Amino acid sequence: MNKRFPATALAAALALSLAACGSASSSTSNSGSGDSATIKIALIPPTTGALAQFGTDAVKGWQIAVDEVNAKGGIDGHKVELLKKGTDGDTATTLRVAKEAVAKEGAGFIGAVMTSPEHAALNAQLQGLGALSFNALGKDDALVGDQCAANAFHIVQTNSMDINALAGSIGSMPGNKWAIVAVDYATGHSAAKEFTSAAKAAGKQVVSTQFAPLNTTDFGSYITKVKSSGADAVFAVEYGADGIAFVKQANQFNLTKSLKTVLGFNMVSEPLFPALGASIQGFYNNVGYDVAGDNTLNKTFVSDYTKKYGSAPYYVPADNYVAAETLFAGIDKADSIDPEKVRDALDGLTFDSIVGSVTMRADDHQLLRPSYLGQVVKGDGGDAFKIVATAQPDKTTPQAESACSF
């Protein structure tokens, strides 16, 4: 079941309720013009389920960024305040929390929302809310296509960008018959579709495609079907606790020993390395952020994050830090904290970030940034990603879709 946008009726109801309680432009402190006005950012990550750890780490990325700017006196003379909320990942809950944060607590900006369905529902409401959203987690291409919104900024790479970054390497990866096991929501479906096309172009065959519901704990039947398909390589789109369960059960079923390649899509990440153990050494995975990136901003971020949280950052906190950098660059350019003025200032803006120089494409609000392919290797301090390929945004980013119209 593709749960891309199940919230149409809910969105209409919310729009009516917003008309009664006002929008951010009339009620929030973000729209204030005084020097003491506070920039309020609502963070709405998952706090339960398979994605809860990622939600916690998303908040960490924002927190580091806010601590840094507040220590310097704020942005454009304004201090920044994080309104830390939470959701169960259900679109109705996320929309309700967003509405309350904007209308009752004065948030003009929203971050740390996790899944693509949540972002799709939120995008439809942003104009009525009078708020801007900075998506550092939801990868569905539709979010910069027919579900795009003028008030939504897509910080993270889309599925297409990630697959395009991998496409040049699929042909050289061992294995000719691929099986796909993906999470059963928008990102899983779109990633599977894009990978199938890329594999075909590389002369590979996809012999099996399966979708497992989020929070699946027993992958036995899925693994059995992979083994019976004759696949000698697997493309897996499973996250958090789901990813851990899939990898461990694949080992128990002796699946990984029979495979020439395991390619994860956000499946194996640094926080999960200890739980997954040495069995993931040799696995490939798309890498959206290079922790060893050689620029001053990134070195400072890595140092500050490691000092505060006791471990180096990975893509989730890093991408959310980039989301904060994007917002702050917009405020600085606009010389205002009014969401509409910040939105306009961000169109086409190029600025320096922890991932290098990036540009916010005006056509669809997709951030143009590099992507990577990593392989898990054993290091002196434990497992780590070795970056084996880098792809620049001019090679990975599709043209803006005509379906996106602001």
Task: Give the SSE map.
Blueprint: H1 8-21, H2 24-27, E1 39-43, H3 52-71, E2 80-84, H4 91-103, E3 109-111, H5 116-123, H6 126-129, E4 132-135, E5 152-154, H7 159-170, E6 177-183, H8 186-201, E7 205-212, H9 220-228, E8 233-237, H10 240-252, E9 261-264, H11 273-276, E10 284-287, H12 296-309, H13 315-334, H14 339-346, E11 350-353, E12 356-360, E13 367-368, E14 371-379, E15 382-391, H15 393-396
Parallel strand pairs: 1-2, 1-3, 3-4, 4-5, 6-7, 6-8, 8-9, 9-10
Antiparallel strand pairs: 10-14, 11-12, 12-13, 14-15
Give the tags.
406 residues, alpha/beta, Rossmann fold, 7-stranded mixed β-sheet, 5-stranded parallel β-sheet, 15 helices
Task: Summarize the structure in words.
The protein has two domains: 8-157 and 294-369, Rossmann fold, CATH 3.40.50; 160-287 and 372-396, Response regulator (Rossmann fold, 3-Layer(aba) Sandwich). 40% of the residues lie in helices and 19% in strands. The chain has 15 helices and 15 strands. The strands form three sheets. The protein has a seven-stranded mixed β-sheet, sandwiched between helices. Strands 2-1-3-4-5 form a five-stranded parallel β-sheet, sandwiched between helices. α1 (8-21) packs parallel to α4. The protein is globular.
